[in-house]
Amino acid sequence: MTSILELKQLSKSYPGVAALKPFDLSFRKGEVHALLGENGAGKSTLIKLITGAVRADAGAVILDGEDVLGHDPAGTLSRGIAAIYQEFSLFPDLTVAENVFFGRQITKGGMIDRRAMEEETARILKDLGTDISPRAPARSLSVGHQQLVELAKSVSRNIRVLIMDEPTAPLTNREVGFLYKVVAKLKARGVTIIYISHRLKEVFDLCDRVTVLRDGDLVSTVDTADTTEAELVRQMVGREVIHDHPVSTAQQGEVLLEARGLSSPKVHGVSFKVRAGEILGLAGLVGAGRTETARLVFGADKRDAGEVIVDGKVAQIRSPRDAIAAGIGLIPEDRKSQGVLLNQSVTFNAVFAALSRVSPGLLADARAERAAAQKLCDQLRIKTPTLEQLVGRLSGGNQQKVVLAKWLLTESRVLIFDEPTRGIDVGAKEEIYALMRRLSDRGAAIIMISSEMPELLGMSDRILVLAEGRVAGELSKDEFDQERVLRLASGLEMMGETA
Amino acid sequence: MSTETTAGPVPQGGDRRRAIVARLAQYGIYFALLILVVFFTISSDVFLSSANLLNVLRQVSIIGICAVGLTFVLLTGGIDLSVGSVIGVAGMTCATLTAAGFPVVVAVAAALAFGLLAGLIAGFIINEAGIPPLITTLGLMTTFRGVSYIIGGGLPVYGVPDTLKFLGQGYVFGIPVPVILMAATLAFGHIVLTHTRFGREVYGVGGNEEAARLSGVNVKWLKYKVYALSGTLAAFAGIVLMARVNSGQPKGGEGYELDIITAVVLGGVSIFGGVGRLTGVLAGVLIMGVLANGMILLNINEYVQWVVKGSVLLAAVALDQLINRQGKSG
After folding, report:
1. Per the count of CB atoms within 10 A, which of A29, A53, A213, A409 is most buried?
2. Residue B4: what pLDDT?
3. Where are the beta strands (DSSP E) in B49-191?
4. Is the pTM of this model over 0.80?
């Protein structure tokens, strides 16, 4: 079979990390080629290098004999390489046809020929087997239909290589079935599809060959017919997890927090318990509903059903304010947009959630606030020139500690960490781990959401795996196993209902 | 002290430029005020007389009182265009009630109650219908102006009792009462902003609404409060204005909202919320007063004065944008 796209010794490094190591990889004309790997394995980097979104350090990307490396995404697109990402790039208020032809509208005598665009769009969509109206605004379409419009965009450009990043993540089962058919059609037309998915089942259903990446390097490329799920998981994981995490010394106590049947549009009846002195890890793929579950517990989003029980009593949590009063604190995933006030001082941020606690009187007690902030800075070793420093000027790790300081001051007994070490350098990471462990040893109940497997396995006392908004399984410390977590998270394995 | 400095290199390039711009924004306003004062002192014999300076202060007292309420609103990232119309309705209400023989206290209370209600209505529309503050208060500006005309059938109401006149025309130790009221309002606002929980929450919501909510701030309730404060202070200013001009004027306060917003933004309060102090706002208010007074003394055409005021507002907003962009690039 002829190859259409060849990657030759393509590589990319960021300061201190080799994001992608040089290797050769070729994609055949008309094949569906799966790209597998854990978070951070180098899949995204590889795609960005191919499309030109990121500049490669060295190597070549040969498309049908022509080296296309050095072009930007618009350049590679015009040469026949398109990518569909998880977040669609449709203009919500333009019609389907306007979206499909955006930037290269069909014109007649200098004016946009709306009818020609609509007819052409209708033809392409019909070809894909759907009857979406070309005149419908993109906003009015379901997620599945929006994805089809993205596909139509690519098809209308005579694409030769189509990269799909987790295309089924937002889809319902029926939509997934439809997507399979569309992929088959494109393949029959000779389009090469690079298919990224965490769901191994899809790899076997849909793909001809599969390439596994790990730590930025190529592990293997094989025909899907010649491998097994177990083999692929083993290749993705590859190594033993290194234990560099502080070990629990605490006796686990009473159940501090219990969630019963939490439900919202993205969470379906999630229940769990956390004990004092315990760190419960929440595992799952992107979109599995981990953050959404945390926000339901914290009252940040409206829940349709379920209850939160703190200290054996049902807590009436309707807002974060209620949750804080019940002794819960949330260290959100996106620190800058949800955790801190960037243009306020360290003191301001540290005492912000505990104003009435620090100054019980009518007027704020500036001295008490500074004293409290100073104590926390010492305790958490927050590195700042002064207490008046704007938090926006601190490093990521120190910002994260400021968020934590806020909850220490409210004396939260249940702490929810959502991706606690994202965007934080290695040294600060270890400090955050040590702090988490110290808090739990002192009797706090901690829920930790993490996409980093070593962190999850290293820090958790127990792991709850979510998949598609449901509890897929629960593993106790002696059952911890990276492959197992991955299998549960990707829906390959289901455990019975956990109490 | 754990003041281990994170290997802090000397600020350079963008950092230094940002620092300079920030410093300029912080003190530039006082410098601008000084330049204006010097300029008018040189070009007019009358300007620096104590009579004229007191006159300037009395002139700005109405917008000064309103500026305090608007500062709170702007700090949360909102805006209130309805203050000028609330001034009008409050003056008309108060004048009509006293003319009808109601006690002064009742008339004043009714006018203040209207201001409070006006703010709550704005808060309700913004919170519950999710309409942006700009549009909400633009609509209310027109609505309340209509109310102001309806109250007196389009005509002014005369017959302000002496006790009320004192609010607008009296003196205490040689200082006009409106000036004292403005100073008191500013001092009150300053203490609330810098020393109370409510003040912290105002800054927090303006700086990052979602982070504030996740820190336990009841954001909706806070917005009700700031618009209610803005409305009540505007009504208070309306009463003082009515007392000063001896009558309830249906046109009272018309166009004031622009002077007030200009003064507040000039004073360094960001239209993006979260940043600004009332000390700066005081300077902004004084600049507006000095500009207006000086231009009159120099016999500058009224139309030209409008051009100048509008340009000042745009310049202040442009500076705010510049600082904001610099802040984000870091």
Report:
1. A213
2. 38
3. 157-158, 171-172, 175-176
4. no
